[in-house]
Write a structure and sequence with these properties.
The protein is an alpha+beta fold. The chain has eight helices and four strands.
Length: about 230
């Protein structure tokens, strides 16, 4: 798959097949992603891969915490704005409404919404989960580097015929994840990534939020940029 096709076809997959992904496939994806750029080559990413019994334990304990202990858990950093404003609020709402419409979840159906949220903590049935960590004393530049690494992981997976879903939702339960994985306190859980074979029959996998046209976010400078 060429890079342009991988970029245009990658999406957040929310339904996976019950089909295994072996360690060699995951290692090959990470082997390609490790060439992501980073300032002065610090390579700040740390990855924990879960599958089998460990994956199931993480999923079960975090689902339990999400239902019974939610008020005891909090993400270690703000991923989303604490105060929403336009145009970002409108884009967020359009994405949420579009996804729930595709899932057949009516506005105000809190039970169905919670059930869908909890699917995050089963990696949407993907057989493999990746947890992405960073040292908590690294500055914002290293977080930018980490974002490029995460994108590289997803594109490498796309090129290998697999699908992914980046998941910030895991960070609220970082203490549960870190306890099970035995990671030190100085590592911050940045996100999870579900990895597996997409379910082509699942309607939710057909959802793609609208993307802005180039001229909506680009300002051209200089005569060489003219039409």
């Amino acid at each position: 798959m060429d890079v342009d096709t991988a970029l245009r076809t990658r999406g957040s997959t929310r339904a996976f097949l019950d089909r295994p992904v072996d360690r060699g496939q995951v290692a090959a994806i990470l082997d390609a992603a490790r060439f992501a750029p980073s300032g002065t080559n610090v390579q700040p990413w740390q990855v924990h891969v879960v599958s089998g019994a460990v994956r199931d334990q993480v999923a079960a304990e975090v689902r339990h915490a999400a239902v019974h202990e939610r008020d005891q858990h909090k993400a270690p950093f703000d991923f989303y704005p604490t105060t929403w404003r336009e145009p970002y609020l409108g884009r967020r709402r359009a994405c949420g409404w579009g996804l729930y419409t595709r899932l057949g979840i009516a506005k105000g159906d809190h039970a169905a919404g919670l059930a869908q949220e909890l699917r995050n903590y089963s990696f949407f049935d993907a057989p493999v989960g990746l947890f992405i960590f960073i040292d908590d004393d690294l500055p914002v530049g290293s977080w930018v580097d980490l974002g490029m690494f995460v994108q590289s992981v997803m594109l490498a997976a796309q090129g290998a015929g697999l699908a992914t879903c980046p998941q910030y939702s895991w960070t609220s339960f970082h203490r549960v994840v870190r306890r099970i994985l035995g990671t030190p306190d100085n590592l911050t859980l940045v996100c999870g990534i579900a990895l597996g074979h997409p379910d082509p029959a699942a309607a939710v996998n057909g959802f793609r939020p609208q993307r802005l046209a180039v001229d909506a976010f680009t300002t051209w400078h200089g005569p060489e940029a003219g039409t």
